[in-house]
Amino acid sequence: MLKTFSSFIFAALLSQGFFLGANGEATKKFAPGMYKIVNPESLTWVRGLPGPGQHGPWMSPITMAWDMSSIYQTWEVSAFEEGYKIQNYGSKMFAFSRSHEVDNLVLGFSDGFTKWYIEPTGGSEYRIHYPNRDLVWTVNYDDNFPDTVSLKPFEGGEDQIFRFDKL
């Protein structure tokens, strides 16, 4: 009876995406869907504005914004291979990196995408990781222009943590 019950519990947890991570702690696989992505430290929202005009391809920096009402702050996260594609709902551009170099800006791009890993950091917060590199999305604070997002080595700072608010 106990074996049957524990098999049932294991199957139920597995069906919900729970598994044991490398550190032995129970983690939950990230669920694809529509999200607002916020940096909890600055309380700003990830935004992907469209390119100018109607003819692409377009590429523009992903920025952070204070207001959260724009369709340009809505993101569709979809599974791709063992990672995720992140596409802006308003501009239709994908989160993209031209290379895997430190300080490379994360861009919105109309004609291509980068595969990303979305890894839990605890609670409902995550880091967005460039595959096979120690580089994660990091908010770049700028007093004169909108804050941007670039790739930097993971240091565990609050500027590297994001919350995905499901819509």
From TrEMBL:
SUPFAM superfamilies: Ricin B-like lectins (SSF50370). This is Ricin B lectin domain-containing protein. The keyword Signal applies. InterPro entries: Ricin_B-like_lectins (IPR035992). Keywords: Signal. It comes from the Eukaryota. Residues 1-24 form the signal peptide.
